[in-house]
Amino acid sequence: MAKLHADDWLASLSVLFQWACVAFVILAIKAGNGRHFDTLSIDEREGTIFWTVLALPMGMLAFSIPKLGVAALLTRIMNPTKQHKLAVWGLTSFCASTVVASIILVFAQCTPMRALWDLSVVDKKCIPGSVVVDFLIFSGSVSAFTDLYLALYPATVLFKLQMNIRKKIALSVALGIGSVATVIAIKKCTRLPALAEKDFTYKTSDLVLWVVGEGTTIIVASCIPLLQPLVDLIFGRRALNSSENNGYSRFPASRLGWKKRDTELGLGTGKRGERHKGTSVDDLVEVGSQDTILRTLDYVKLADHHHDGKPGQGHVSRQPHLTNRCRPIRSFAQQGALSTNIRQSSQNNSSFVSEHRSQDGGFYYCYPDFINVPRIDLSLSDHDQLLSDLRYALTEVGFLYIENHGVPTNLISDLKNALPRLFSISPESKAEVALENSPHFLGYSGDGAETTAGKSDRREQFEFATELDATWKEGLPLRERLRGPNSWPSAYPQLRPIVETYIRELTALGERFLRLVAEALFLPQGTFLPFLSDQHRLKLVHYPALEDPGAESQGVGPHKDSSGWWTFLLQASPPHIKGLQVLNKSGNWVDVPVIPGSLVVNIGQAFEVVTHGVCKATTHRVLGGSLERFSVPFFQG
């Protein structure tokens, strides 16, 4: 497992309350619970009442807290709509609040409180027992309804998906086992009036059993959906798969290194605190791959992790043999739920399309192409949702906006304001820092100096990098010549501190982002950091206004970024000025408009290589226009 989630913590807390409840029930039985009240001594009566009063609230917490855990689990793996999420959390929270109110009512029904069990107290005021019982029945009814809703909701979602009936039933049962708790809760409600009976100790003997039973059932129900590895171990991978042939027998029988010992969600072995091992659940496959489906899959060595030809921690793999944008689904919960785990919003257009089955019984879900670029809020408090959104952008789009990135707004404003002045300096001042004169390929290049896809790019630019000393000498690799000082235009001395500060900020942001990327790919946070160079490059780009732009005027032609792992782009023009477009896998160009306060991030070809194509660089271009445009790409080295 990658880490403990909220449902794990809530289930663990529930177990503690359940243990406390059982302990108090045992003490109540020893004191006299289960025997007729008239046969007990005063001490036995008081002891029975005391321990029963303590046991009931513990049991109530034990069956209410797991409902919150189930809600957390369902919202994590089913990714419901906002309305369903509000319904799930609203209902479970209301149920929990009625339980808390019931506990308060139980302890506060008499003044002083000790009069509940101390039969010697004469001067006391108590709420009628029937009032307490009525409220407990109301709370129990809410609990029963909540259990039923949490049991039926997954089934209604799963039966809308395109999968075989055996799997629908199995997953519905696994996620809906809490319906048993509904029956127990109803039975418990029928026994609650015994609390107000005169023969309290005898009439409540079965009530405490139903309270304990309800808590135990709902705790077990909250854990069953995550037992897929055990099912695989005992029954094998095909236990839930239909035997029918869906026309995908051409797929290979190998799981490309996947083994039954892989843990929850089919991703890893070892201790609970370790990151996932093995191939990622989000392995991306493409249409039209030229690789043979029978080839041996190579694994990319990342950081200091082992490389033995098998999937291991720190490895990301790619499966090249399926249809466009399909994913292998490897766990009990995922088979029914991951189809909705990728955000079902117009923001990223990733709704579920269809399920395909391979010859080995594995299932692959396919998603439609993106029609716009997803937006990722780096300040999102729900870290799991942040990683889920990021994972979609990494494997499905290759482009994303990041917001609340932490780069100071005043620094961005200073850089934007510097651009018009920089490009307005004289041609002579630009020529003195010409890139062609720099052994480090840093400096100015003019409009039309570069070509992409056989056409001249209509842009001029200044290139800078992390300020380093020139250390190259004869005998060293030629790439070392790229390391060296920048060429700063003397006509604009105020530019240097702005650019150097911006490079430092983007360097830090890039490292933070790379840690998130590793997490999103189920890898340790620091996996990619050892590969980073200490030199990153920055361009200040000006796209001039064109008198006759035309439909295909080229600011920069179609290309993938070859410089660095990631590109962090500041679109430094007003929102109404467009130009940047990305190519989706359907062959359509998608606009990437300016969103104030955001940076556009895209995958470079180096990162595509190191992830073996799981995260692909996306083709993009910049169109020329009738309005000048500025942009600032930062290339992570």
UniProtKB/TrEMBL annotation:
One GO term describing the cellular component: membrane
Compartment list: Membrane
Bilayer-spanning residue ranges: 9-29, 49-74, 86-107, 127-149, 169-187, 207-227
Biological processes annotated in GO: small molecule biosynthetic process
Membrane topology according to the record: Multi-pass membrane protein
Pfam families attached to this UniProt entry: 2OG-FeII_Oxy, DIOX_N, Fung_rhodopsin
Phosphoprotein found in the keyword field: no
InterPro entries: DIOX_N, IPNS-like_FE2OG_OXY, IPNS-like_sf, Oxoglu/Fe-dep_dioxygenase_dom, Rhodopsin_dom_fungi, SAT4-like
Keywords: Membrane, Transmembrane, Transmembrane helix
Domain Fe2OG dioxygenase stretches: 534-637
Similarity annotation: Belongs to the SAT4 family.
Name the record gives this protein: Fe2OG dioxygenase domain-containing protein
